[in-house]
Amino acid sequence: QLLTVHGRTKEQKGPLAGVASWEHIQAVRKAVSIPVFANGNIQCLSDVEECIRKTGVHGVMSAEGNLHNPALFEGRNPLVWEMAEEYLEIVQKYPCPLSYVRAHLFKLWHHTLQVYQQLREELAKVKTLEGIVDVNRELKLRCQEEIANQKEGEKPKEGLPFFHWICQPYIRPGPKERCKENGASETDKGVRGKRALEEEEDGNPELLSKNKQKKKLRNPNKTFDPSLKPKYAKCDQCGNPKVSWC
Could you report the per-residue pLDDT of 140-154, keeping only the tens digit for each? Predict the structure, then answer.
């Protein structure tokens, strides 16, 4: 009944998301008769209008941009703590797992947490909703103090369009940009966002991710050696594991 097109390849995910292709979304829109929604590159309200104009889609979705600025579709950039406090009020009224709350605040406070690294660590370790509220309050106080001490004519740092305490998008670098940042070529297959694959392959518990360490605790015999994983025949068309209807 309705199709949403993400506008990225299967390799463009996580830290390698990069820019979505509106041209491909437009091609899908022209090829089908059902309503099409676009997703990708939506960081502010003007992007919504531009996307509809360029692709001809019936509607627009936003994930990353909306998580960093929940007021995106209102066309404004509020103070981060306004959105964070409103969100925490909702959570207190309608409880949810603490990991969800933490994840939302990491998005909202993303740019500020690059400045106050200690509070970033506290937010990551806190075990209660009250503790999260306390960290949120401390972030607000730090920002308000920074605003009070701000010099006239001072501009945002780190190339941000607004000061870090204002809701704004975080634009992930694409594969090309990330390779340049790491001093590697575009074809360097060893580049990975968080941890080199070879660091995990030997099964050393000290080098495994936290998630894999937890799995190892539950099942001591579990191995993460890629050479022991079952091999699947690949489909000639898409490169995914081959199934009966390929």
Answer: 999 999 999 999 999
Give strand pairing partners of 38. 5, 60
Residue-wise pLDDT for 59-74, tens only, equals 999 998 999 999 999 9
State the pTM of this model. Answer: 0.69
Report helix angle 98-108 to 129-148, nearest 10.
Answer: 10
- Give the model's confidence band at 207: pLDDT under 50 very low, under 70 low, under 90 confident, else very high: low
Same domain? For 115 and 140 the reply is yes
Count of domains in the chain? Answer: 2
Q: What is the dihedral of CA 120, 193, 168, 22, to 10 degrees?
A: -160
37 in the same domain as 85: no
d(CA 204, CA 206): 5
By CB atoms closer than 10 A (0-12, 13-18, 19+), residue 55 is buried
Which residues does 153 contact at the CB level (< 8 Å), separation at least 6?
Answer: none
State the residue range of the domain holding 35. Answer: 3-62
Q: Residue 155: which residues within 8 A CB-CB, separation 6 or more?
A: none
